[in-house]
Amino acid sequence: MYWLIGAMTLLIIGIIATGVILQRHPERDLRAWFKPTLATNLLIFIAAQGTLIVLGIDEAMANPAVAEAANDISIGMAVAFIGVGIPTAFSTLGAAYAVGSIGAASLAVLAERPEVFGRTLIYLGLAEGIAIYGLVISILLLDKL
Fold this sequence. Notes:
Elements: H1 2-24, H2 31-62, H3 64-72, H4 75-112, H5 117-144
């Protein structure tokens, strides 16, 4: 099992290194060489994740302490925990989209009118607040369980 985790770690490092090289050297046209490498890397990573899930479930269920703890949580409680995480997930996705759009627009405006820098920061802060609201809702819902 440890060899699989080590392989996945090396694959992640390879993906990150590929991104860094493409970012640092945009003048070189290395994309034709990196695309098949990156696709193979991602495919192996996904296969390793699936294998880890299959092998990891067997090892976790073999431990009696884990099996006893799993019986303490009902299906309804598990669904409730998933429901508690949904507001945070959706608010974070919404905030990411908003920050991306506002950040791109802010950079475009700042290139022409640098005096509006303060207002663009306020807009970015309001967009980030969306994720915080979702987190607060999830904490309040978690308190009810």
